[in-house]
């Protein structure tokens, strides 16, 4: 690619009004020790505060800072996708705006990537979060790993450096429900993990409450796996087997003359058997409907309202 940038830094911004200035300052200070051929892409996910105004200020001061303003709040992982679409660097760094992902670690991630890796993920061995958040995160990743049949690590989030071919592979995925860490795990490539220092959030608190986390988990599981539906099929099969066993028991009781109410055994057997069959059928149909649902909904995953310092 002609005049390709060396490094792109992509950061979704939400409620980051008081952090944008410091974020840009620290990124510039550290990235320029690697190269002067870089760009910083700040994606405003329709933040309700003055984040976009702060991004405008940074873009006015430095043309290497680029602003992407989404038309509404799409969510963090959709904002990351928007930033990746505009990234032109040979290497792309993805990081959060709350300064828990330390810009000082970019140099370490880059150096590790030069050892021959296409993906280097930051591993937060000691998270500067509350005990409740750490436990809920670990529980979520354990549950998510089981249902999606992928290996997810609670110490790894979005922060990392990715070669352009990796970014292109992620963007080529047609998933309408986006969850960046799971996409990175799914595509493969030669990767490494680098232990880093994890800081406390610079300002405010996380926008992920229980309701949003539950919705994210549900959407992601549906997007990345049909295992829940397969579990329903298995559940229906188990019910069917139990109903056959119950049927045999009632049949033996009938032959021994232990059942005095006529029609009771046949009614119970029929209810149990058909309940299992119906659940199995619904599960199988659900598998196909789920796949069709993902395919036919062709909505864009994000909509850009306006941009700053972005070449048309």
Give a topology summary.
Blueprint: E1 5-13, H1 20-31, E2 38-44, H2 51-61, E3 65-70, H3 76-86, E4 89-94, H4 106-113, E5 119-124, H5 131-148, E6 156-163, H6 164-172, H7 180-187, E7 191-196, H8 210-224, H9 227-255, H10 264-296, E8 304-308
Parallel strand pairs: 1-2, 1-4, 2-3, 5-7
Antiparallel strand pairs: 3-8, 4-6, 5-6
Helix pairs in contact: 5-8, 9-10
Measured as a percent range, the helix fraction is 40-55%
**In sequence order, what are the helices and strands, one letter per element?**
EHEHEHEHEHEHHEHHHE
Number of helices: 10
**Estimated structural class:** alpha/beta
Shape, per Cα inertia axes: elongated
The strands making up the biggest β-sheet line up spatially as: 7-5-6-4-1-2-3-8
Give the overall pLDDT as a whole number. 80
Strand content: 15-25%
Low-confidence stretches: none
> What is the radius of gyration computed over CA atoms, rounded to a whole number of angstroms?
25 Å
Main pleated sheet: 8 strands, mixed
Quote the distance from N terminus to C terminus: 16 Å
Number of strands: 8
């Amino acid at each position: 690619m002609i005049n390709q940038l060396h490094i792109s830094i992509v950061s979704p911004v939400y409620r980051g009004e008081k952090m944008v200035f410091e974020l840009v300052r620290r990124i510039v200070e550290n990235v320029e020790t690697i190269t002067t051929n870089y760009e910083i892409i700040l994606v405003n996910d329709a933040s309700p505060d003055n984040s976009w105004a702060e991004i405008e200020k940074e873009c006015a001061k430095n043309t290497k800072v680029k602003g992407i303003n989404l038309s509404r709040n799409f969510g963090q992982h959709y904002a990351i996708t928007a930033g990746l679409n505009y990234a032109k660097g040979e290497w792309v760094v993805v990081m959060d705006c709350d300064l828990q992902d330390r810009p000082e670690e970019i140099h370490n991630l880059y150096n590790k990537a030069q050892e021959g890796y296409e993906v280097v993920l930051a591993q937060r061995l000691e998270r500067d979060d509350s005990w409740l958040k750490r436990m809920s995160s670990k529980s979520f990743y354990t549950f998510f790993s089981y249902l999606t049949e992928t290996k997810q690590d609670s110490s790894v989030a979005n922060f990392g450096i990715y070669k352009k071919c990796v970014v292109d592979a992620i963007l080529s995925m047609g998933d309408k429900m986006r969850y960046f860490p799971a996409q990175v795990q799914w595509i493969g490539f030669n990767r490494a993990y680098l232990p880093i220092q994890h800081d406390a959030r610079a300002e405010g608190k996380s926008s992920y409450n229980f309701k949003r986390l539950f919705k994210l988990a549900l959407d992601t599981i549906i997007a990345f796996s049909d295992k829940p539906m397969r579990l329903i099929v298995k559940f229906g099969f188990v019910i069917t087997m139990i109903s056959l066993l119950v049927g045999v028991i009632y049949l033996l009781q009938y032959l021994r003359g232990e059942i005095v109410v006529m029609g009771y055994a046949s009614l119970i057997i029929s209810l149990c058997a058909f309940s299992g069959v119906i659940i199995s059928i619904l599960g199988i149909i659900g598998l196909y409907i789920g796949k069709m649902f993902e395919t036919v909904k062709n909505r864009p995953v994000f909509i850009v309202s306006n941009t700053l310092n972005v070449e048309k």
